Amino acid sequence: MLSRSGCDNSIEDMKGEPDVKFLKYMDALGPQSFSLAVRDKEAIRDRRRLNLFETHWAQEDSTRLDKIRQLILQEAEEDLVEAERESAALLSRLLEMNPSLTTAMDPQYLAILRDRCRRSLRATDTRLDIFKLQDHIIRKKMTSSFGDSDNPATVKDFLADDNCKCGRSHSSIRT
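The structure assignment produced for this chain is given below.
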């Protein structure tokens, strides 16, 4: 009847009318046992009180942490807005100081620039192909007789030669 595992049913019974059996049992105890039983019930009450306080403080702690998180979030949002404002101001100032950057962002300018780069790349590829052909002619001349020694081979002669052993088509290259 006095055990803790019984969830203190005897105390719940005492809320209304006192449990007669419990009181008779308590009267039958010796003074030392009675004193221990009272201390046990006080410990149970104090533990429940502390559990109640702990629950309230846990809720208060959670509420305070939520307020701190809200303040941190609000400050971060304000910092972001300020950083965006500063960035926009710096960008506009940069564009005012260097107007060529505004044309660099223009789609038409970018298309013209792309075409120039493409033409330059084609011209460079053509020059490289000519250098490779000249190298190929020199090597072929060293290994075979590609004409008279009085009449050295030229790039045009090489392009006209269908018996080239390099395997590449040279007809697309203009000299």
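Interim note for the steering committee: The two ends are 114 Å apart (CA to CA). The chain is about 75% helix and 0% strand.
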